[in-house]
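#data-curation
PF: Archiving a pair of folding outputs for the training set. Convention for this channel: one message per protein, sequence first, structure tokens after, nothing in between. First:
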Amino acid sequence: MTKKLIYQGKAKAIFEVEGDDNQVLQVFQDSITAFNNPEKFIFKDKGLISCQISTKVFEFLTKNGIKTHLISSEGDSQIVQKLTILPIEVTVRNYAFGGILKKSHFTRGEELPLSLIEFMYKKDEFGDPLISEDYVLKYLLKGDEKLFHEIKTTTSKINQLLIDFFDKINIILCDFKIEFGINNKNELLLGDEISCDTCRLMDKNTRLSLDKDIFRNNEGDVMDGYREVLRRINEQYS
């Protein structure tokens, strides 16, 4: 039976789950994009590997008290809770890479003295611009200070958990992007994915990238990095 498509993103597709209005099927695809470029590049098994990485990460976060949308996973797909996704992308920076280099005194690869949380307006047509906390609170969260505080505190907790998660497999978590949504019980849940698509990951010894920066910067076979991250995760967290 053909599943009804709800949403087609850059790297995932969301489908209805027959007979359950509170769940959806999230399918990871083999495409990679960069710099908000609509052009997609296809890499074999990328969807499968990204799904497996994200599943392991979400399972770890759930065990450590973070509420997530993940219900189950198989192959390149996950059954997840249906969320109303907030129009906010939350970026956490532990090291200076990417956009922060254009607007700060930090040099590329420098460890930040304090982790930095940034907010982007989730609008592809605007290029997901950086926005102020005041804008987030007043216009995107309709003045809901409790929800805003929960987003910030949960994000900080996720960051520390992920730093420890990757440190155990000899990887530095440089930065990452997450999204939140509200479920049918009005709970804030971590949604979307956490994988090499949404994180900057760097080998502690070689300082080489193990994420989508390999593709962005033409540094070799991007799938070598994804496979290595999954291999280490499976060895440590099987």
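PF: Second:
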Amino acid sequence: MERSGRLDRGDGVELAWAHLPGRGPCVVFLPGFNSDMAGSKATALRDWCARRGRSMLRLDYSGHGASGGAFTDGAIGRWMADALVLIDRLVEQPMLLVGSSMGGWIALLIAQRRPGRVAALVGIAAAPDFTELLLWHGLTPAEQAALLATGRREMPSQYGEPYVITSGLIEDGRDHLVLGGPIAITCPVRLLQGQRDDDVPWRHALMLAERLDSEDVEVTLVKDGDHRLSRPADLALLCRTVAALLGENGGEA
């Protein structure tokens, strides 16, 4: 049975988590920007792991979901550290990291910092370096100047209310860029990417695949897939992908 709770990361901010005991490697789901562990991809994997007796950890970064802290206080390095606090406290087995959008970037950073513990990695519309390549470069010079002057900017979202990006998010992102050269990750990597993704261009997945040191990298392009990849067929593809990496026979129950 899945257990859940909140863990103080050391400064009074509590991080929400849900852990399903079972056989390893432990599937660790890393949500996207302004998303959380209650989304359809995380819960589909949780249900799949429960049926198969597999271990899984779901989590919310600070400022996300059920965790404490303010969203605008966060940044890539902070959210990576949040995930590592929970991983180091709650996971004893090797890990299969599954990162959605920004979570794909965080998965890459974790794999570099805990290389001996990561058995494989799955990116779903993985968005490494998105703060620079997609957010910052998507602004006009005037908009960039305004962001630096005020420290924040509201961005429209097709998924709900506008969200705020801060100058701190952009600046911290530059300390964690990975696509500028080889990425020292050697475990198997699977990248799932929709070609109708309006947030992360599908060629981003090819760039990432090229940068990875691993020779065991596969990119799956879903021609009619959007950024979320949350339709039943997309979720089935995700479960099949995880199943194959774990040596299971398909993604069905």
